Amino acid sequence: MKLCTFDDHKKELLKDPEFKKEYDRLEPEFALVRSLIRSRIKRKLTQAQLAKKIGSKQAVISRLESGNANPTIGFLKKISEALNLPLHIQIG
């Protein structure tokens, strides 16, 4: 059995039109989550520390970072302010 990297596996999966369609549909959410995680880690903050900065609980940050939350714009604004980042929302 040959081992493959995640990127190799993803490349294979994206050859399937149905998979690619769903992947593309979810990409904006994945991009947001990736950006939040990278920004938090870059600032050397734990989930608990970020949660405390915005007056929330660590579990809320965990759900957001795992893609199991549907955050409001207000909540995203709190996160962006705590991470000292601008919040840009764009349609089209």
UniProtKB/TrEMBL annotation:
Pfam families: HTH_3. It comes from the Bacteria. InterPro entries: Cro/C1-type_HTH, Lambda_DNA-bd_dom_sf, TransReg_Diox_bact_type. One of its GO terms (cellular component) is cytosol. SMART domains: HTH_XRE. Keywords: DNA-binding. GO terms for molecular function: DNA binding; DNA-binding transcription factor activity. Residues 36-90 form the HTH cro/C1-type domain. PANTHER family: HTH-TYPE TRANSCRIPTIONAL REGULATOR (PTHR46797), METHYLPHOSPHONATE SYNTHASE (PTHR46797:SF1). This is Transcriptional regulator.
